[in-house]
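Why should sequence recovery work at all? Because a backbone constrains its sequence more than one might expect. Tight turns favour small or flexible residues, buried strands favour hydrophobic ones, and helices have their own preferences. The token representation captures these environments compactly. In the example below, the structure is given first.
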């Protein structure tokens, strides 16, 4: 679990943690969905039937400011449903946001319509807070840094279909410079507007022992999932200072580091790639992997190091190990 270069820098082994344990099963999930309880055209049961037919294992129904619907009789048989909600509003500085709270507890007291209070309450509950469609909303990177989001929508399928604002890769890489644990989520944000289905275009694959709410949420919090528009990661493993992945057939495999750094393999004029091994540069404070298939569909890993922010704080407080050179370059959060 530790690279030779890290050892050279005298880093205690336990301080560097790699994300991903892909020894469980993969479960397909959609975390951003709407029903007739807010502004979608499908009922809850119709939505469950749609996603179950596409082999999803779990969904989170995130109606606007709506308490989760009590589980219906079909839920257990069709797919697992995680409590969720989408809130929107202005923060104290007048910036407008949409945010998903996944695993939110259905308490009326947190759905008062007060955006910043609800955000604080959901965070205190332990819900996973996802900065939704920042490009579509028109947020700035600075606005993303202002609140305690656990991650962002790296791809929102409805936003992409509607006006081409579905991707948030530059936001993600910008956030990773400040918080190397920041997670990426692909979602549908489906509303089933007639003539604009916009669904099954972005999802997450969670590796877990079982498809229970507790197992799935725990592995989402750990970032033990990837986001996809089509291609799949089968396994993500580590050597001494390398990451090894196996995938569905793809044309590109990219290791993406901070700013101008990165490496890639391609299968142009060759048989598709199904695996790759990259050396992990010790001076990167974050690294993530992107794969792309022949149709241009992509999948994204989360950052490979985890708890990096905590490690950085320990270093800053003088209570942790010295990090390798270059990893000190994490930028402070700004208000
Ligand atoms: Zn929204
Ligand atoms: Zn939405």
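From this structural description, the recovered sequence reads:
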């Amino acid at each position: 679990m530790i690279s030779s270069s890290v050892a050279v820098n005298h880093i205690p082994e336990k301080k560097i943690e790699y994300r991903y344990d892909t020894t469980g099963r993969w479960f397909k999930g959609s975390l951003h969905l709407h029903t007739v309880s807010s502004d979608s055209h499908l009922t809850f049961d119709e939505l469950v039937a749609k996603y179950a037919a596409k082999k999803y294992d779990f969904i989170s129904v995130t109606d606007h400011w709506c308490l989760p619907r009590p589980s219906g009789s079909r839920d257990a048989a069709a797919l697992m449903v995680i409590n969720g909600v989408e809130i929107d509003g202005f923060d104290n500085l007048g910036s407008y946001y949409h945010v998903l709270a996944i695993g939110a507890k259905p308490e009326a007291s947190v759905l008062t319509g007060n955006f910043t209070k609800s955000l604080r309450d959901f965070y205190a509950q332990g819900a996973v807070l996802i900065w939704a469609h920042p490009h579509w909303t028109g947020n700035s990177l600075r606005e993303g840094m202002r609140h305690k989001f656990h991650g962002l929508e790296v791809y929102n399928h409805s936003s992409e279909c509607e006006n081409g604002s579905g991707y948030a890769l530059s936001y993600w890489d910008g956030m990773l410079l400040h918080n190397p644990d920041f997670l990426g989520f692909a979602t549908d944000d489906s509303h089933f507007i007639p003539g604009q289905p916009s669904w099954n275009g972005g999802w997450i694959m969670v590796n877990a022992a079982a498809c229970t709410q507790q197992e799935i949420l725990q592995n989402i919090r750990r970032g033990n999932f990837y986001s996809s528009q089509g291609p799949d990661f089968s396994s993500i493993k580590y050597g001494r200072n390398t990451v090894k992945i196996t995938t569905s057939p793809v044309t590109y495999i990219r290791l993406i580091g901070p700013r101008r750094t990165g490496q890639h393999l391609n299968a142009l004029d060759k048989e598709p790639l199904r695996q790759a091994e990259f050396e992990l540069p010790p001076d990167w404070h974050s690294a993530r992997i992107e794969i792309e298939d022949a149709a241009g569909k992509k999948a994204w890993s989360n950052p490979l190091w985890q708890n990096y922010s905590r490690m950085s704080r320990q270093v800053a407080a003088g209570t942790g190990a010295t990090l390798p050179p270059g990893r000190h370059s994490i930028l402070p959060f700004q208000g």
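A few observations help interpret the result. The pocket of zinc ion (ligand 1) is lined by residues 86, 98, 132-133 (CB under 6 Å).
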